[in-house]
Amino acid sequence: MKRTIRNVTVAKVIVECLKQEQIRHVFGVPGESYLPLLDAIYEEPSIEFISARHEGGASFMAEGYAKAARTCGVVLATRAVGAANLAIGVHTARQDSTPMVVFLGQVDSRFLGREGFQEVDLEAFFRPLAKWTVEIREAERVPELVQRAFRTAKTGRPGPVVVSLPEDVLWQTVPEAVMASTQVPKPAPRHEDVREVEAWLTRAKRPLVIAGGGVKWAGAEPLLRLWAETYSLPVMAAFRRHDVFPHDHPCYVGHLGLGAPEAVRETAEQADVVIALGTRLSEVTTQDYCVPSADQTLIHIDLDSDGFGKVRAPDVAIWADCREALSRLLTIAVRPSWQEWVAKRREQYEQTATLPEKPRNVYEAAMASFARHLPNNAVFTNDAGNFAGWLHTFFPFGEGHTYIGPTSGAMGYGMPAAIGAKLALPDRTVVSLSGDGGFMMTMQELETAVRYDIPIISVVFNNRMYGTIRMHQELRFPGRVIGTELGSVPFARLAECLNGLGFQVQTEQQFTEALCAALAAKRPTVIEVLADPDCLSVSTTMQELRARQSL
């Protein structure tokens, strides 16, 4: 649907573009370089501006919002200083294939190239990070280029687009602007492609599907489940795409993440035909580019044709939307002969995903409590860190669209992303998991949650160190500790100082009581979990590591 507006300011045109895209929330830190745009948002009741405490936090909120709402995230910031602060969110959106449009105020056009106040070449700065960058210097081109920004962010492999707006341009008037809704192409596989997949599966003895974010963005989880059930196909989740397939399903055989259990890696290595569905086959998903190997047949199905061959040349490359691909792959005539192998690999996976009996460590206790007390449709976000390994290993994701995590491994992501997710899904419980190192990087955004009354639950595993780096430090330079020890921070008390709720816990019972209280309170809450520094990862303690090194 098209509509035409006339004789409005550039700032107003941008807001009209946001409305055309049905954007309801934008995130940012106010800056004088884009005050006209802020004022235009003030005039538009359908759009709420969420003012964050730091541009990095704002960019994580927008990225988490985009994933939860399955729409385009929008974040605003000022010139070089604000732009540099939010660069981490742009990198995260790029590696996570998240559609996001970043509007950056820029110095007045007359001052460009003179090293004006807070000037930097924003196009050049963001070109290596973003999917596309553009600086708009003519008011008449604003409708065209802003709408192109949204189209580019959402089309093909989604990603972030950066739009630089010189301050003087925002004040100018556009004589006429045509607003048109973005139509995202959804290519379907050719008949020949479907028949080729059929032929390979007919010959297969141990096929495996690796399902990634493309399945989630297409909303194709139900079709994937139906396809797996129809042909008894085993499914693995790509790195941090846990909710792409229900974990209690007999066809689910594990997650290809950091520190994947040996049994899960064995399943991936034993497969003779690997169907990579909606995944770019990242370093982590491929276990350091080892899967699929040259001895395995690779069928790669994705919207991003540029990704074909980056890991290894596919035997079959299908450029298609995952929903369109799956709907056609349900027509293939294949009689599965691999059910016994799938059942065995499922059994091996179940052994790795079973929580130990009591007494449990505090991470295991938290996972058990989550499984018992959270609603089935609760949404998890997580920061970077080894603590996430317990979530990835033991939490039984059931319903789709319940997990949001950074494949980029960005610290500080979890809690701001939870704010964005809760705004997108206000009727769902949203829980973020962080370590003390990562949480401290964006903890100020808890005040944002309080100010806007966004009731998230933030679980902080406090072991007083950068735990993941400490583990690698101990592996490579045993006993030579530098930089990874942190001070004691009272996170629960700090939450109360910011007018949120705070609980400090150390046992399973205390954690369960705090979780239930947080669920009932419906206020921004921090549950600080006092964690044992000896517990480095799901499979390693400091004591065990040093014992092995002494042999």
3D structure, described in words:
The protein is α/β, with parallel strands linked by helices and 551 residues long. β4 (73-77), α4 (79-96) and β5 form a beta-alpha-beta unit. The chain is globular and about 70 Å long. The model has no long low-confidence stretch (mean pLDDT 94). Belongs to the TPP enzyme family.
Task: Compile the SSE list and pairings.
Blueprint: E1 2-9, H1 10-20, E2 25-28, H2 35-42, E3 48-51, H3 55-69, E4 73-77, H4 79-96, E5 100-106, H5 122-126, E6 132-135, H6 142-154, E7 160-166, H7 167-170, E8 173-180, H8 191-203, E9 207-211, H9 213-217, H10 221-231, E10 235-237, E11 252-255, H11 262-270, E12 273-277, E13 297-302, E14 316-319, H12 322-329, H13 339-353, H14 362-373, E15 379-382, H15 388-394, E16 403-404, H16 414-424, E17 430-435, H17 436-442, H18 445-451, E18 457-462, H19 467-476, H20 491-497, E19 501-505, H21 508-521, E20 525-530, H22 542-550
Parallel strand pairs: 2-3, 2-4, 4-5, 5-7, 6-7, 9-10, 9-12, 10-11, 12-13, 13-14, 15-16, 15-17, 17-18, 18-20, 19-20
Antiparallel strand pairs: 1-8
Helix pairs in contact: 1-2, 1-6, 3-4, 3-16, 14-21
Which stretches are poorly predicted, pLDDT < 50 over at least 5 residues? Answer: none
Q: Strand order across the biggest sheet? A: 3-2-4-5-7-6
Major sheet size, sense and barrel closure: 6 strands, parallel
CATH topology of the largest domain: Rossmann fold
**Top-tier CATH class of the largest domain:** Alpha Beta
